[in-house]
């Protein structure tokens, strides 16, 4: 809103948001999962895992993107050091041979760490693939070849981890999610019990009967990653950084006008208008529901097999898919507003 309107009333809130990202960054360049640091998650994993240096949920990547937008659109020089340290954190957390991948999160001394009880201390194939794509992006932002230097060995490592046919139980997947440190063996997560009191997660090498709510398998498009790497490596630094906000002399650059617009173009502006209810929102599917809290979980396991269900017994408040539940949905809001924005931007408000 500040970039669009240049109204000074928005600037204090924007400055506060920028400062929050800067304050929460560790000196080495990574970020914790939560800030200020909290330690109340002992029932669901390591009690201080939220303080770990985190790649999971795109914590580091999204923060770098936000800071890049601030520098690109505002010329905020105070964010440059944070951007540089943030990108370098991807280099120092990549493991050495023979396992040149990444984990979901790290301790303060840069060692891979477990987090939630279904996230073992292991390397993660999908995180590794994502981080390789980001290193290619960082080269195109900076022209610094250090970001490309160790990509080939990581790609070769991921190639060796490709599952043979018939192992993955989720269609279209190619790799196990977790890889045991030191052995390269796939680790699979399982669950027993019916709630958080009597149940537990555990790990072994058996790919059968894995969790429904956290996939044991991932799709890694190695061919696409290899092409992205080859295309980037073929570019001289000056050519690679064309259009980069970090290129010398780039100056202030406009943001994409509507960079959060939903890409689905089947919805028309007329439909968006008619679907808006009298309360001023678009009802939409919420996707998930949960049991209301009734009482503490029982120490006795409820009858039934909960090993692959999204939720356990009636005392388990975990979310589960619910196609019938509707309400105020951010996704529905973006989808309908996108249809209206597209119509206005095209000069055809319908």
Q: Tell me how many strands there are.
A: 12
- N/C terminus separation: 26 Å
Question: What proportion of the residues form beta strands (DSSP E)?
Answer: 5-15%
CATH architectural grouping of the largest domain: Alpha/alpha barrel
Oligomer: single chain
Low-pLDDT residue spans = none
Main sheet strand line-up:
3-5-6-7
Overall structural class, as computed from helix and strand content, comes to alpha+beta
Main CATH class of the largest domain: Mainly Alpha
Q: Could you please describe the fold and organization of this structure?
A:
The protein has 350 residues and is an alpha+beta fold. It folds into two domains: 2-162 and 223-240, Glycosyltransferase, CATH 1.50.10; 269-345, no CATH class. Helix content is 33%, strand content 10%. The protein has helices at 2-5, 11-24, 59-74, 80-93, 125-142, 151-160, 222-233, 237-240, 269-275, 330-345; strands at residues 53-54, 105-106, 123-124, 175-176, 178-179, 186-192, 200-204, 217-218, 283-285, 288-289, 320-321, 326-328. The strands form five sheets. Strands 3-5-6-7 form a four-stranded antiparallel beta sheet. A two-stranded antiparallel ribbon has the order 1-2. Helix 5 packs antiparallel against helix 6. The protein is globular, with a radius of gyration of 23 Å. The model has no long low-confidence stretch (mean pLDDT 93).
């Amino acid at each position: 809103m500040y970039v669009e309107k240049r109204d000074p009333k928005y600037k204090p809130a924007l400055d506060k948001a920028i400062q929050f990202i800067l304050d929460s960054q560790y000196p080495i360049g990574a970020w914790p999962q939560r800030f200020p640091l909290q330690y109340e998650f002992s029932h669901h994993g390591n009690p201080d895992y939220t303080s770990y240096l985190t790649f999971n949920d795109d914590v580091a990547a999204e923060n770098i993107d936000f800071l890049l937008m601030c520098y690109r659109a505002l010329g905020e020089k105070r964010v440059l050091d944070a951007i540089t340290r943030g990108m370098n954190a991807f280099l120092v957390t990549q493991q050495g041979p023979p396992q040149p991948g990444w984990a979901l999160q790290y301790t303060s001394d840069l060692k891979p760490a477990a987090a939630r009880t279904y996230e073992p201390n292991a390397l993660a194939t999908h995180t590794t693939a994502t981080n390789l794509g980001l290193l290619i992006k960082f080269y195109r932002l900076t022209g610094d070849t250090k970001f490309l230097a160790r990509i080939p060995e990581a790609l070769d490592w991921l190639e060796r981890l490709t599952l043979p046919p018939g192992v993955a139980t989720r269609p279209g997947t190619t790799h196990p999610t977790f890889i045991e440190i030191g052995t390269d063996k796939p680790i699979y997560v399982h669950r027993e019990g019916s709630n958080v009191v009597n149940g537990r997660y555990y790990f072994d090498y058996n790919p059968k009967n894995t969790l429904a709510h956290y996939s044991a398998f991932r799709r890694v498009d190695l061919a696409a990653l290899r092409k992205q790497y080859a295309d980037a490596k073929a570019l001289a630094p000056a050519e690679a950084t064309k259009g980069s906000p970090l290129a010398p002399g780039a100056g202030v650059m406009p943001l994409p006008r509507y960079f959060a617009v939903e890409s689905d173009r089947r919805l028309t502006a007329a439909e968006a208008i008619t679907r808006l209810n009298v309360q001023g929102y678009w009802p939409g599917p919420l996707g998930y529901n949960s049991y209301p809290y009734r009482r503490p979980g029982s120490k006795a396991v409820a009858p039934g097999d909960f090993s692959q269900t999204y939720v356990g017994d009636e005392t388990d408040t975990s979310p589960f898919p619910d196609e019938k539940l509707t309400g105020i949905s951010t996704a529905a809001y973006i989808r309908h507003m996108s249809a209206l924005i597209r119509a206005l931007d095209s000069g055809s408000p319908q």
